[in-house]
Amino acid sequence: MPQNNQTLLEKTVADQWQTLPSGLTVIVRPMPGYSSTHVIFATRFGSIDRDFRLDGKEVHLPAGVAHFLEHKMFEDQDGDAFAKYAKTGANANAFTSFDRTCYLFTATQQLDESLDVLLGMVTHPYFTEQTIAKEQGIIGQEIKMYDDSPDWRLITGLFECLYHEHPIRSDIAGTVESIAEITPEMLYDSCKAFYAPGNMVLAAAGNTTMEQILAACERHGLMRPRSTERVQRLWKPEPMTLAAAHKTLKMPVSKPCFGVGFKEKPLPPNDLRTEALYDLILSCITGGMSPLYRRLYDGGLVNPGFGGEVLRVDGCCCILFTGESDAPDAVKQMLLDEIARIRAEGVDREIFTLCKNEKYGQLIENLENVEDSASQMADFALSGQTVAQQITMLAGLTAEDADAALQHILSTDRMAVMDILPDGTAPLAENEEEAE
User: In this structure, are 126 and 157 located in the same domain?
Assistant: First the structure.
């Protein structure tokens, strides 16, 4: 993309960005004419952050603490945060992933009051033995629900094959046994380490201003300087070999589910360029515009959910292909053949350009929606980047970059396969008929 267009683009999507004396990163995208505002308060703390050192103290957490903590943040001495949001009319939620926890709400009125609920509950944690015991039962039910999800079991099964030691092997919510070990001290240690303002991002988009968001930060003490000591994450060495090459599971599914995973070298935390390049390569191989996808879909070999994704967190990068098929082995072989063909011949230039334009367009389209815009800002800010920088970086990726990357990724030497087969108890799909 020409340099003058890059400059114009950066001006067009320029987000207001400030780092407060407390270390908190604040990004605001005022959107005049919009009636709602979406706000996200995010921390770099996810399910993989289980072993760390802070103030000379080593802490080792059982699986599921980050997700457990997310649930507990909504409860304090004054009651439940959802009840407070109900009074302001805001629609609130939260989620935990492998490497982050995000608290969010959308409001069309009483924005200041909703900001006070959000910042108050996240910056003033409150835990007791009694409230933890109550939550252990609730989350235990959620864990059982995940255990019944073939999509989730497929992904976690692949992680167990690909990795020996990395905590991505463990479910985000943990296990019933692991969350039974959680204590108030563990939760307070986690808050001190990962809920420090310097480890967090506050992003807002819509009917608001930087001044309004900063005023809320002022009310909650986030303008005051804080300790600059950062948590030191402790990682066990992870070899590039596989823990297992193949795993099979039987579940009540109507059609076999399969996953093919490739273990790749971990990427530096701020290397969003390589991640975006890998994602583009996957679009060329299995995206909706790829020849392989059309052959598989037109032949009835896969459903529309078939595709690939890149997953990268600290110490871990892998490429996963998943789907459903009555002929999973045939699909896997066609996938490997297509990877080998594109590696030898190079990516199709026209398809590469179409896929790149599609992703470019999605980034731009997200700027017109308050939820997507705030989410996009927070996601990139957690990696130290602006939306404009990400768009400019994507525009600079070339087919030659993809060809070069393909020479060292998607190696069958680092490939694991996960299969989930029907156990015979699933109900028939709508388009299936029972044999007479």
Answer: yes
Residues annotated as catalytic (active site), given as ranges: 70
Does one domain contain both 67 and 187? yes
In DSSP terms, which residues pair with 418 in a beta bridge?
247, 259
Q: What is the pLDDT of residues 126-153, one digit of tens each?
A: 888 888 888 888 888 888 888 888 999 9
The structure tokens listed for 44 are 């770099």
How does pLDDT run across 218-252, given as a tens digit for each residue?
999 999 998 777 889 999 899 999 999 999 999 99
Tell me, yes or no, whether 44 and 184 share the same domain: yes
- Read off the pTM: 0.91
CATH of the domain at 294: 3.30.830.10
Domain span at 105 = 3-232
Q: Which two tokens stand for residue 84?
A: 């407070």
- Are 49 and 158 members of one domain? yes
**Residue 277: pLDDT band with limits 50, 70, 90:** very high
Which pair of tokens denotes residue 338? 């297509």
* Residues 207, 305 share a domain: no
Report d(CA 385, CA 394) in Å as an integer.
Answer: 13
Are 148 and 414 a contacting pair, CB within 8 Å? no
Q: Are residues 49 and 175 in the same domain?
A: yes
Long-range contacts of 290-293 (CB under 8 A, 24+ apart): 290/351, 291/338, 291/348, 291/351, 292/334, 292/335, 292/338
**The token pair that represents 32 in the structure block:** 């005049």
Q: Name the amino acid, one letter, at 77.
A: Q
- Cα–Cα distance measured from residue 30 to residue 211, given in angstroms and rounded to the nearest whole number: 11
Counting DSSP H helices and E strands in the chain, the numbers are 16, 16
The model's confidence at residue 12, banded by pLDDT at 50, 70 and 90, is low
More confident call, 7 vs 299: 299
271 and 326 share a domain?
yes
Structure tokens at 2: 């020409």
| For residues 26-34, average pLDDT | 94
Structurally, the chain folds into a number of domains equal to: 2
Last residue of a domain, one of 178, 202, 232: 232
